[in-house]
Fold this sequence. Notes:
InterPro entries (chain A): AAA+_ATPase, ABC_transporter-like_ATP-bd, ABC_transporter-like_CS, ABC_transporter_ATP-bind, P-loop_NTPase
CATH architecture of the largest domain in chain A: 3-Layer(aba) Sandwich
Order of helices and strands of chain B: HHHHHHHHHHHH
CATH topology of chain B: MetI-like fold
Helix content of chain B: over 70%
GO molecular function, one term (chain A): ATP binding
CATH superfamily of the largest domain in chain A: P-loop containing nucleotide triphosphate hydrolases
CATH superfamily of chain B: MetI-like
Keywords (chain A): ATP-binding, Nucleotide-binding, Transport
Oligomer: heterodimer
Radius of gyration of chain A: 18 Å
CATH topology of the largest domain in chain A: Rossmann fold
CATH class of the largest domain in chain A: Alpha Beta
Distance between the termini of chain B: 46 Å
Organism (chain A): Actinoplanes flavus
Number of strands of chain A: 9
Pfam family, one (chain A): ABC_tran
Number of domains of chain A: 2
Shape of chain B: flat
Amino acid sequence: MSTVVRIDDVTKKYGSGSNALLALDHVSLTVDKGEFVCLLGASGCGKSTLLSLVAGLDRISGGTLEINGKHVALMFQEAALFPWLSVSGNVELALRLQGVGRADRRKRAGELLEIVRLGGFGGKRPHELSGGMRQRVALARALAQNADILLMDEPFGALDAMTRDILHDELERIWREQELTVLFVTHNVREAVRLGDRVVLLSSRPGRVLEDFKIDHPRPRRIDSTEVAAQAAEITDRLRAEVARHAS
Amino acid sequence: MPAEVITDDKTADEVSGLDALELAPRPDRGDRGRRIWNSAWPKLLAVAIAIAAWQLVVLSEWKPTYVLPGPVDVFADLKELATTPDFWDGVRLTLTRAFTGFLLAVAIGTVIGAAVSRFAPLRAAIGSLITGLQTMPSIMWFPLAILLFQLSESAIMFVVVIGAAPSVANGLISGIDYVPRTWLRVGQVLGMKGLSKYRHLILPASLPSFISGLKQGWAFSWRSLMAGELLVIVPGALSVGARMQNARDLHEASLVISYIIVVLIIGILIDILFNTADNALRKRWGLTGN
């Protein structure tokens, strides 16, 4: 298996001198092609910082960061669709910025919306959709960037449990069908165990890799299955111990 | 393997079922006539109360009726006025001036606003000057304008533009300043740079604030224009303002009040136009209450 994301001894500092904030401290992590890796940690562990670095939105302060993929796409907790464009228009804009010709854009956007099961909604405005549907449009937009590496920053954090549960199935399906590599940030332990091939636990302030859990339960998994719950409990204990370390 | 295997068909049904449940049915907005009446009657009542109060002041004989005529006389004069083509020539002249001046102000204000928000030194240099200009009563510019351009159309245009352009520029600047951070990050992720970032993100995102700027700019240009038409009487150009000044010179109080009403009505009609544009945008973007 080839490595698509290699994070080697990466450090990230904000500011300088005595006021400098060390967000990531010698973090090393590799993600193989087609892997689904969940990053888990309490507040201040630099999960989002790490994603910004991998997405190229921010620069590393030390170490090396290597990406071997076609394109990296990033999704946030908010769908952040543009309200002046239709649903299809939002996806088409991503295609356009990739240099896709006018004639192909509409067709390709339609196909991408089919993938996220929103085939009939291309002409709607983003505000006419529910939160879960908007997140699926954001996913279609990410796929439109011809991305094979998908970074997700708590993408389902603002959704209700039922919608989240169904979107887990959907994300798993699309990950498999589109042969994506996913780096998924969450603070929900069960969600991480439900989705990930691996769950990487980060420490807080500064962010370091504490432990790398391999999740072997066969897919499809259920978030309420006993296996997922048992493994989630184990990871939660580890996470709590880390949080307690910051007392006083 | 777990007992329950999730088949693709089953999730497809779950997804579309959930979508159907979450898409709220369109609220019943009642029939059209009723809605118009609901929004119209408070306005009509307000107008009726204002006219009644006016009539009461006239009845109290606070001023003689040749100085302060009653609504009946004024509306009779207004009706007669509205049937003369000459009057409509005046309205046309005034509106032509208003639109020309406003469009000029929009063009200049947009260029200045875009430049100021793009280049930091320019903002430091003239950012606060723009706000300062906005607070300047436009009538203060007329003496200078008359010295520069004599009693001409240019003098009026000068003041209209200088009154309205700062509002337009400010609307655009604050629109650009307050583009949400997440949109900017999305733009970055999608690979927008330089000009394409402006075209696909910054300009459309600043539209609501730009429209408020236009609306405010219009109000300023309309006020400046009215002041200008009263002060700068261009020979041969019988604008609404010039006619009003004329009526005052002839002590025709009823005609003066008629012109006040005309200006008020034009102002209200244009305001409705701006509000319609604003509401259409809000509805499109989903910024309205329902």
